[in-house]
Amino acid sequence: MWDEIPDIHSEKPSVELGVDRVGLLKLRAPPMRVEDYTVLPVFKAFVNLPGYARGAHLSRIYEAYVRVVKPHGELSLDLLRTLAEELLRVNDYSDTALVSMRGRLYYTVARGNVPEYSGNGFIYAGLTFKRGVGSLREYSGGGVYGLSTCPCAKAVARHLYGEPYTHMQKVRIDALLESRRLRVEPVEVFKRLSGIVHVPRNHLKRIDEASFVREVYEDSSFTEDIARRASLELARLAASRGDTGLDGVLYVRVRSYETIHEYVVESVVKAGVSELLGVVK
């Protein structure tokens, strides 16, 4: 009886056309580790499907996923490569696997005698993996919220009134590096971005608050300024890891959530890593 169970997936489809990718979205993993950070990742896992097969075996994709992704395991680019290899091992009709991950970081910042618990961190990673070849394309990225003030309003107010009045806004930086094979881990991108802007604080005494606000107001920046600084910092990070090949590309997006306007301001940079390093030499 069990031997006679039909395998509908392996039937010949009515239209013999290959499917570029089929798989699972919103694979919510248990908490995992990235260095000293805890991350709650969400995965995507796909394989391609040849024209002679009607459907992919989705249970095989999920089983491959849980064999590789373990609770409290270390999250890295190598884990994604291992997942891609496992997807191809259990789906012998496929020759390409696509996997990706995005997650939020949770960590403790030691400042003074009161620790600050933060969830202000994001990481992203993904790759396309070909059977017998390896990675065709990989990306590694991160994101963080920060604070900024408007340099235009400050300059005009100082000119007109003799005081540097301006407005503060929250900004979000997201950036990624893309290449054939990367050595830069997502958490490294996040840490570099965290040094580009002043990140929000959760515990501030009155004197600390005044000092912090002063720092933010003295470091006024347009989104364009932040995007340029982040691009340069990521290019240098890539260079330090040897990821400076001709196919290396970086993407940076900065959004400013304005306080005195209803709209959101956005600046984007896309540049080749080698090209950018040449410009700033």
General description of the model:
It is a single chain. The chain has helices at residues 58-68, 77-90, 151-161, 186-194, 206-218, 223-240, 273-280; strands at residues 19-28, 32-34, 37-49, 96-111, 114-118, 122-130, 134-149, 168-179, 249-257, 264-272. It folds into two domains: 1-132, 2-Layer Sandwich (GTP Cyclohydrolase I, domain 2); 138-281, Urate Oxidase (Roll), CATH 3.10.270.10. The model has no long low-confidence stretch (mean pLDDT 92). With 281 residues, the chain is α+β, with helices and mostly antiparallel strands. Strands 1, 2, 3, 4, 5, 6, 7, 8, 9 and 10 form a ten-stranded antiparallel beta sheet that branches. The chain has seven helices and ten strands.
Write down the overall mean pLDDT.
92
Report low-confidence residues grouped into runs of 5 or more. none
Query: How helical, in percent, are the residues?
Result: 25-40%
Count of β-strands: 10
Q: What name goes with the CATH superfamily of the largest domain?
A: Urate Oxidase
Do you know the CATH topology of the largest domain? Answer: Urate Oxidase
From the spread of the alpha carbons, the general shape counts as elongated
Cα-to-Cα separation, first versus last residue: 72 Å
Domains, number: 2
- The ordered string of helix (H) and strand (E) elements is EEEHHEEEEHEHHHEEH
| Class inferred from helices and paired strands | alpha+beta
CATH architecture descriptor text of the largest domain: Roll
Query: In CATH's first tier, which class of the largest domain applies?
Result: Alpha Beta
